[in-house]
Amino acid sequence: MSVEMLFALCACLLIGIGLYGLIVLPHPLRKLVAFNIMGSGVFVLFGALAKRGAAAGMLADPVPQALLITAIVVAFAATAVAVALLLRLIEATGSASLADAPASKD
Amino acid sequence: MMTTLVSGVVVLLLLALALWTVVARDAFLAVAGFIVYGLLLSLVWVRLYGIDVALTEAAIGGGLSGALLLGAVGKLRRTEALSWAERCGLGTRALAAALSVAVTLALVLGVLFLPDPAPTLAPQVMRHLPATGVGNPITGVLLAFRAVDTLLEAIVLVIALIGVWSLAPDRAWGGRPGPRYDADPDGMLAYLARLLPPIGIVIGIYLFWAGADHPGGKFQAATILAAMWLLVQMAGLGDAPRTDNRALRAGIALGPLVFVAVGVLGLPSAGVFLGYPEGWAKPMIVVIEIALLPTLTLVLALLMSGAPARSADSSVPRAKP
Amino acid sequence: MTMWLDAFSIVAIVAGAFFFLAGTVGLLRFPDAYTRLHALTKADNLGLALVVIGLLPQMDGLLAAAKLVLVWLLVLLSGAVVSQLIARAARRQDGNP
Predict the structure, then answer these.
(1) Sign of the C-alpha dihedral, residues B46, A72, B215, C82?
(2) How many domains does chain A have?
(3) Do A and C have ≥3 inter-chain CB pairs under 8 A?
(4) Is the minimum CB–CB distance between B153 and chain A shorter than 8 Å?
(5) Which pLDDT band, with edges at 50, 70 and 90, does B318 fall under?
(6) A18 at the B interface (CB within 8 A)?
């Protein structure tokens, strides 16, 4: 089995693991970490597809790799906004609960 | 055979770390596992011959994201017990497991039946790369062939920063993000913050300039420069800037504005938005990159610092004992 | 000649990997934060030095070799400072001023 197929299959598993964690974990920060793992699985899958496109003397197709650089940076920006939202939620309600009716303080 | 063995070991480690991140009891352990996972992922990128992506993953995916999440975990300690009491029951877990298995199987089927030979744009890139004047095909794609994507990415980063700043409470509106770090001025952190930033700045600018012909580029360079600035802030040698500082806002807006200006200039001279006229590709690319570097540095560092938490005039220096 | 250089690289890198292994065993087996930090920094610095020495013959050009040595020096610097900071934090947590 070639290296890119191995990594592509690994990426599918990573997406599955991240999806499970995103649904099951209760704390929003843990959900965020699981979401990042799912995202990185998607990136590895895309990167394996880029490596399959090696041609014309280049070792990998550069267009998907350039898109991946953009994707990693935007994923970081999204994580930063999510963390800021989470910290503000905790500051405003005192708990990280995403339930509809928070433990009432009034 | 040996390289497949090494790749297999890396794959097993990655899967083990991902599982650890999901099942670990403590959020801090999960984030620590995530940082290691990010660094291991850059090895995967080297194996897939994406050196630029490996640099970006190590810097932003492993380094900045990990530091961001680690800082958040520190502030969220007391909310963990309550949220653990809210965890879902066995039925939801079974459904979630079934869903993730189904998604994984669907993707595996897609991977196993990929078209052969693989469609690729590498020949077109190689054919048109000399016209752009850069030697690194990734830089050529980012700034010449798919320049619109990079422009939109820069704008998305600025919008994300505006989103983070809009979460400031009323009393801290326009103020400084993060706490006032008060490290010992003779201590180790201050020593590192005096020694490392000059080296880091040189390495960052070298990485930026070398990105034209070798792996590198402005994203990786901006991460290193942002990290140096954050180090200086955390050692107490300098304070976080006021978010209503006009020079700061001008620096952040400069990158996308110059990018759009170059694009609009392309309309009369080359007939299309972000078109480069004959022979002018390299200078235009250099102009865009030089304008984007400060924007990216400021935005990445400020995204790490978070929403403003102190009012604007809270940086009055403390009286010396 | 290149065969001898390759053999030297292999020996040095394996020795470096052994030191990394020793540091990790120390991390897992030592009782408290200070002894673990000691094991980690000493073993990892020496391990990385051996790996860098092993890779030096494989580099093409003096500039690439100098960059590798610079990487080692930076890891040395950050490792020293970070272990100091962690030790200080651990001491504060233990209750000593």
Answers:
(1) negative
(2) 1
(3) no
(4) yes
(5) very low
(6) yes
